[in-house]
Amino acid sequence: MNIIVYTTCPNEEVARTISHKVVTERLAACVHRHQAGTSVYEWEGRVEEDSEILLMIKTKEKLYEPLEAAILEAHPYDVPEIIAVSIDNGLAAYLRWIDHLD
Amino acid sequence: MNIIVYTTCPNEEVARTISHKVVTERLAACVHRHQAGTSVYEWEGRVEEDSEILLMIKTKEKLYEPLEAAILEAHPYDVPEIIAVSIDNGLAAYLRWIDHLD
Amino acid sequence: MNIIVYTTCPNEEVARTISHKVVTERLAACVHRHQAGTSVYEWEGRVEEDSEILLMIKTKEKLYEPLEAAILEAHPYDVPEIIAVSIDNGLAAYLRWIDHLD
C-alpha cells in the first residue's frame, strides 16, 4: 500500500530541507512543494493566520514511522501537521517506482 | 477518525470568510488556503475555466455535517465542491490536537 | 464511489491540455490546476528539483482506467504520477454532479 503524507512548513528553507532529507534518506519517492499558502487555526482563543508551505509526500505505508521521525528531526514545530492518506489506485508503473524504495 | 475536507472558493474574500468561520465555530482545527489556481469544468456543453482557491480543512469525521452546513451558509454557490477524504495515519499528538475540538 | 486523481505536469501548456481533454471527453467532472510548485525526487543517485503543476481531478471510480489512458496519451512523461484517493463523504448534490458523467 502506498500513501500520501502531508506536512506544512513555516518557510521555504524548512520545506526545502525536509523535502531533500526524506528523498535523500529514501523515505519518500517524491515530494511536491506547493507555493506558500495561508494556514488558519485557533491558538489560545484567537484565530491566527500564518504563511505555510504544504508538502505532498508520496511513499510506502511501511515507511510511515521512519518518515514521521525524519520530519520531526528537521521541523521547528513540536507538533507539526503530519497526516497520511491512502493511495487506492494509480498508474502501475508509477506505484512500482514508489515501491522501489527499499 | 479524522478527515480532510476540500472546498473551492471563487475569491480570497470568500476563502478567508469560510476559513475563519469554521475555525471560530470550532468545526475545524486548521484550514490551509492554497494560492488561487484554475478550475476547469463543463457547463452547458462548454469547457469553462475559473480562478478558484482551494481550502484544505482538517477536522473530525463526526463534525462533517455541521461543517458542511457552515460552508454552505457562507458560500455563494448553490452546489460548491465539498468533498472529504479519510486521514488514515498521522502524528499522534497532531491527531489529538484535531480531536480537541468538542 | 467517487475519487480524486492527482497527476503532475511539467508546464502550464501540458496542464491546460490534459485538464481540458479529460473534461471534454467527460472523464472528469472538474479539474483544479494548482499554481506551479516544485517536485523533489531522486534520479540516478542525485536529488533533482523540477517545477511541476499539480492537477486535482474529480471523477467516478469506474472512469479511472479510461482517465489514466487519456492522461498518458497527452503526457510527455513515460511514467507520470497518476494516483487516486477515495472520496469518503461530500455534499450530496456535488457528488451527484460528479455522477452525471455517463
Automatic annotation (TrEMBL), chains A, B, C:
Family matches, as Pfam families: CutA1
Source taxon at top rank: Bacteria
GO molecular function, one term: copper ion binding
GO biological process, one term: response to metal ion
Family: Belongs to the CutA family.
Name listed for the protein in its UniProt record: Divalent cation tolerance protein
